[in-house]
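Quick question, first post here. What does this chain look like in 3D?
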Amino acid sequence: MISIVIPALNEEQNLNLLLQHLKEKSANYSDLEIIVADGGSIDQSKNVCEKHKVKFLDCGKAQRASQLNVGASNCTAEIFYFLHADSFPPENFDQRIKTSIKNGSVAGCFTMKFKDSSAILSFYCWFTRFKWNIFRGGDQSLFVRRAYFEKMGGYNEGMDLLEDYEIIKRINDLGKFEVITGPIFTSSRKYKLNGEIRLQWVYFRIQMMYRMGFSQKKILAYYKKKIRE
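> Answer (accepted):
Ran it through. Tokens below.
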């Protein structure tokens, strides 16, 4: 089995689309355990989960690293798959994950494309095929063997941003990380709202601030100042 953990906050519409997508695109839906780790939604997210008969967890607060860990603590499978509510994995994604694990991977992700992509966004996505950490992000999703996730202690809940980037750095120290040619399709809404070049520059600045040792408080303040949600 694969346990899928979806962190969410007021993602009613995306959740409805994603949960239907998982049914249609999985090779064996009965082998999937799906958990929505909710950060305090005030929309109909819980009702959507009940409609699709997936587990809804009220995590008490909207902090992605914490939500992911709460979701993981409720998983029963030996493979964890962390997936954003606005990211849609490719056909037979579950079988492809199992094959990667069978072939010796500790963890991995998919290459990425944006919905409603432009030439600039397609150019950005071209780099997601490479294994360099600078090109990794949560929109590509993340699968990991349970034993290794627990060995690492899960996501770092001191991270308000870049929690996916940080955990993948630790995973790379433990074993093989595979980037599967997908692609996973994700929303381009932030790029449309903030400008395709401008947003990528802000993301680059955030990564540099992290590498230079800026506190999460300062990085988060910069994020909130520069990025419209």
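Residues 188-229 form one domain.
The first strand starts at residue 2 and ends at 8.
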